[in-house]
Every structure is written in C-alpha cells, then in structure tokens.
Amino acid sequence: MDESGPTKRLRRSARTSTKTTADPSRKSLGVLQTSSRHDSNSDNVDSIPVQVEDSRTQVKQEAKVAGKYGSGLSFLEQQRLKNLKDNSSFLQKIELTENHVQIGPVIPPTRSENSIKSVERRAWRKAEPVEPRPRSQRLQGKTAPDYTASSFVVPDAYFLSPRVEREPEPKLYAGELQALEELTKNDELIKCFKYRAKSPLRLGKREGRDCGERVDILALKDGDVARVCQGRIYGVDMHPSSSRLLVASGDKFGNVGLWDVESDNGLYLTKPHTGAVRCVKFSSLDHSKLLTCSADGTGKVMDLCSAKFTSFLRHPEIDQFECLFSWLDPIPGTHTVAVAEHSGRVFLADTRSKNDSSDSSFLTIDNGIKPLRCVSAHPSGNYLAASDYLSVRIWDLRMVESKKKPKPVADLEHGKVCHGAFFSPISGDRLLTTCSDDRIRVFDTSTFGPGITTLANLYHDNHTGRWLAPFQATWHPQDESLFVIGCMESRRRVQVFSLDEDGGGGGLSARVCTELVGNDNICCRNVFHPSLNAMAGTTSSGKCYLWR
C-alpha cells in the first residue's frame, strides 16, 4: 500500500534521529544539532512524536553524567574534568609528579636556506653633543684678520708645473666700420684692383723648406686684429695683389666684410644676401671680382671698382623651399664657377651671365640626395671633387656635357661628414680632406681610378660643436707639403703641418712644423696669401687675425 508524502518524511526523520542517538561517538552537541534541525520543521504536525523521543534520550544521558561528576556543569566542562583526572592518574603511575622535570637539552629552532631572513634593525646612535656656535670677531670686539691673497704664503712645492702666462691679445684695428659705397673713394685700392686685373697671378714652383722657414717668422702684431663681420664667419679669402693686403669674409647673417689692412680706416661692410654667406672667392681671371654664394639660393659677383653686386646664379627651385649653396670654386682658366648645393647637386655657371631669374643656363652634376659640403676644381680644369656625407667623389668635367648624370671616376669613403676636400694648388697630385671622425687624410690623385691610395692619415680633433664653423684644412698656395688648420686645445693657436717623405713605405708622414699663436679665439677658417708671406684666420665672433 502506497504511503503519502508526509508519512515518508516522518519515517525518514525517525530513522535519522535513531542513528544519531545510538552512535557513541556522537555527543550531546550532535544531539542538539539534530534536534535543532528537526525544530526547523516544527511547522509540520506529524514530526512532534519524534522530537519528544529525542529529548527524552538526551535528558537521560545528562542525568547519568551529572550524577557521577556533580550537577550544575555542562557536558563539555564535565568531559574536561574527566580528562584531567585520567592524565593525573597516568602521571602518578609512571612516577612523574613534578611539572618542571627537564626531559633533555633545549634545541634551538633552525632556519632553512630558503627562509626569509629578517632585517636587523640598526642600532640607534646617540646624539652627538652640539658645539656652541662660534662668535665672530666683530661680536667679540676684536679686529678681523687679513684674508687677502697677499697674506697667504704658498710654498713652491704646491705648483707641480710651471705656470704659463697667456700672452695679451694684440690691440684691435683702429679703423671704423664703413659702408661698401665708401670703397669707391679709396683711389689707391681701386688702382691696385685695375692693375692686377690685367696681369693674372703666376704661382711659383715648390719652394720646399724656404716656405716653411718663412712661415716660422709669421707673428701677430698690434693692429692686426679686426672685427670685420657681425657674426660667425664661414668663408675667407685674401686678394692676390702683392702690393696691398685685402681680406674678404662672409658671415652667417648675409654680410660681406672687406678689410684693407694698410689703410687707417679700411673696414667695409655690406649685406648682399638674406642668408648665411658660405663662401667668398676672388676670381682667378679678374682680380677685381669677388664671388659669393649663400644659403638664400643665390650666387653673386661683386665688382670691387664700382662696389656693386650682380647675380649670376639663382636656384631653380628657390620659390618652393629653402635652398642652400654650401661652397663654390672657380675653375682655373675659365669664367665658370662650380657651386655645390646642400641637396646633392653641383651647378656649373658662367659668372659673366647677368640672368637674375631661375631659368639661368647652367649644367648640373647630380650626386643623389647626399648633401655636399665642399667643392674643389683641379688645377688643370678637367676634374672636380666634392665632399658629401660619407665620401668624396671626383668627376671628369669633360664627360659632363655628353652625359646627363656622369658617373664619378673615384669614390673615396670616409667615416663621417667630410667638411673639406681640396686639390693641391700647383700640380693637383694630392687631395686634402678634413673629416668629422677626427682625421685628416691626404690622397694620391696623380692618377684617377678605383685604386687611389692614401698617402697620409693623421689624427686631429675636429669636433668644433654647434657654435663654431667646421674646420677645413687648406693648402699653402706655393708649397704642396704645407697645410694649415685651426686647433681646439685650450692654448689657442693655429697649426701648420708639414708632409715629409716616409722612408720606404711610399707614404707621407705629417708633423706640426709651426704654431701661430697670439689669437684669443679659435680660428676655424684659415687661408694663406697667394703671393706674400701672410696668413689670415677668422673666428665665430666675426674677428679676423692676420699673421705677417
């Protein structure tokens, strides 16, 4: 016969309660938990007889324990007393009645290697006693001692090396700066220009040690220092006249300065360009012409007799972006000028053209996208060298007209930017380069081809920084074994190097043969006079020093 749902639940609850009471491991707490579980179902009327039966069983057990250990104690407390009595009887049985008996030696706890060690605290240092603040001589009413330099006696052993006193800089040129138009009033200088224009300069043969001995006697005198420009000078050149000294220079503000050294008031300044003047050169055919190129993308020629500038080259893309002409060099025996561009091209323009527009007629040598720093023409007029970012390339000018993009006949690799590359002025058998990797190299250019050898490779500090013009080593115009360059050392001077034949190796050995002193600034650009025993050096402050 099937039973209803409530009846099944009552019988299941009765079986559960019976098992809980019969289990000896169950304590009174378990009985109470079971009864509480049944109390949660007290809403059911059929579960009342089971709850009454469980309660009776619990009362009987508590009464039995209470009669043995005493009434008024809970079940847990009675169980604790029973455990204490059993433990005491066991200790008496084994004759261990004292609690302080030591079983064995105390073993300290050990640490494993991987355990984290605690950081030892730093012991507190005792505060040092504060000394009283000393009172000044004024507060004590005394006279203060003499602390001037004359009161100290320095022993001689203090100075490890003899002290070198810097020589005082010579006095500046006393002439005032004038406008370029005042140049036309100098009749003696105009006559010098016209006379030299009729007779081109003739360079002599190598003079060997004679030029070196003449360079040794160069000195800087009072009045041979002048501020010819207003800013950093990038280009300098000396007029080839043997009867009068004239120095031309160009600065970063677009100014061109002229210094007539023999005149009492011979400083002239004008501003023909809007950008930095990168190079100034006197024409090799007409000495009354001064050639200039600028970062504003124009090349101009100045007539010294009339003190006027005319443009012979204008960049074809001058209206699109800022162009930069970095250097120029007249090709010997012609009116053609090679102008290097910062974007990697070389323009060959005629200085007699008066085209002031961008459609001027010129030839172009494409060097790619590498910016050009310097350009130099061979004395024969057949070759052209240009220095770029990592190399120096040489082209044959006779192949420029037949091919649009002629290939270079030689490519000389360098470690970094090469700021200068110049053929020797007499024979052109040597090429002098100045590189930012602190090296000055001399190449053998007697024959052109892939097998160009290096004659000399010497160390020189060429790191001028951003505030100085880069160094450029330049040849002596009458001796191919001498060249001049500035110096970055603390003792300001200009160094003249001599190239001597290396015994057996076929190369050259370079040494400093002369040091020109007296300048208080670093002379970044230096040039020898073509016919006289004189040298000019310019600085980034606009000064020009003249050794003669």
Concise structural overview:
With 548 residues, this protein is α+β, with helices and mostly antiparallel strands. 17% of the residues lie in helices and 30% in strands.
Give an account of the 3D structure:
It is a single chain. About 10% of the residues have low confidence. The protein is of the alpha+beta class and 548 residues long. The chain contains 6 helices and 29 strands.
SSE order and pairing:
Blueprint: H1 5-22, H2 28-39, H3 48-69, H4 75-93, E1 177-179, H5 187-198, H6 209-216, E2 220-227, E3 233-238, E4 246-251, E5 256-260, E6 267-270, E7 277-282, E8 289-294, E9 298-303, E10 308-314, E11 325-330, E12 336-341, E13 345-350, E14 363-366, E15 374-377, E16 383-387, E17 391-396, E18 410-413, E19 418-423, E20 430-435, E21 439-444, E22 454-459, E23 474-476, E24 479-486, E25 493-501, E26 508-517, E27 525-528, E28 535-538, E29 543-547
Helix pairs in contact: 1-2, 1-3, 2-3
The amount of beta strand, in percent, is 25-35%
Q: Share of helix among residues?
A: 10-25%
Main sheet summary:
5 strands, mixed
Strand order of the largest sheet: 1-6-5-4-3
Uncertain residue segments:
16-53, 157-161, 197-209
Class computed from helices, strands and strand pairing: alpha+beta
**Ends: how far apart?**
142 Å
Q: How many distinct beta strands?
A: 29
The number of helical runs is 6
